[in-house]
């Protein structure tokens, strides 16, 4: 059988939702709240709901308040309220605390909660199923089904291709799931969102999307060092002038502390090694004192959309919409996007339910665009729209000063005095040539506070069936060695936080090796490769990380 001979069964729904994250699940719940008779299905590529969810996370409950006002009575796993907020600028041997009083009010975490978003999504899935939503985990949506330039549905549940991509004896073609409307809620740099954008050019009117790489470990620390509800953010060392970014340390519950590090992916030096910057960070005296005597129990990584207001694409198109991080709704200075993801799901559900009630199907839900841009999400993102481009252009000190003025004024008046700064070029294009930069000497991990990549990847519980095609596609197999190695010292060896990519020297010279089994689905390679030669696609459903409570 060839691809052109594949025949698939189809199922019809009112709304098909791709992704069981906070955006997709909020949309599903809201649809059934509006009309219990609507048929709604949610497809999730992880082995279970929450398996692929990784977030800091301090949750602003405003989205959940709007969706399920009695979430406290319903037993939501949201119980650790923030008790104190701490912000530090680090040097190599010490730190300076920035007082809270000069911070714009929007930066306050009063009334917010430290959570595992994986567990929050598991709970939200229970609420959705109780309302009659069908949720299918382990069902990767790999392909868009088109009717002209209208999205008709998706292909999900394809299994059993041979490693070379051919169709073998155990092949299962999957199904086509058709919807009057299709909601794309895959998260950052989703493969279906990329397919849709490539065809419809949804991002043509905005700035290029900007990204960060977020890496996170969960630590169990000594009881005397644990302070439930404490929030710590840092900037500065070890990144310095090499890259933008910073850290978070959140004291959750049961002596568990969430330790994370974010590196903005617009860095120039191709020798920068984001994962090793994270590991080095944990040796800062303030952090080492917290972690010494404790143990790391989990690790993961994922990209973060950081473009904000300037980078929002066209959100609706004939037959579908982009939700949450598929569109890019993170408030960068607050390091929060889950609340906006939830609100986007609510706005999309309201627009789709009204359209279906009016007898419409497959058209463009322009009310959703308007609801996002003119509503709470737009107000949230507009106020902070210059923080990221200021940081990129002015560095840490300049952006702290000018960004604070911009945010304070916007918070008080709703007006940004510096207008709207542009992000400029993409993160891939920002990568500099190796000849213009010096290698960075990173200390070896000590196995106590810091760890090598492969050891840490084991704590993400990642698994991929090896007898399937590699889901990390090269547009041109010669580019890594022919172009990226001489020009950029092949940065894939370093920017990947899971050790997927290697340059191996053998008798015939260097060769590029892809260890796709290690992939934690962060999408950094798809974003940062300077030649834009790597294309991240979905592996078989259920494969990838299995985060227990990220």
TrEMBL record:
Cofactor(s) the record lists: FAD; [4Fe-4S] cluster
Keyword Iron-sulfur among record annotations: yes
Cofactor binding note from Swiss-Prot or TrEMBL: Binds 1 [4Fe-4S] cluster.
Q: Which E.C. number(s) belong to this protein?
A: 1.5.5.1
- Annotated 4Fe-4S ferredoxin-type domain residues: 510-539
Q: What is the lineage of its organism?
A: Bacteria, Pseudomonadati, Pseudomonadota, Alphaproteobacteria, Rhodobacterales
Could you tell me what this protein is called?
A: Electron transfer flavoprotein-ubiquinone oxidoreductase
Q: Name one GO molecular function term.
A: electron-transferring-flavoprotein dehydrogenase activity
The signal peptide annotation in the UniProt record is: none
Entry keyword set: 4Fe-4S, Electron transport, FAD, Flavoprotein, Iron, Iron-sulfur, Metal-binding, Oxidoreductase, Transport, Ubiquinone
Q: Which domain of life is it from?
A: Bacteria
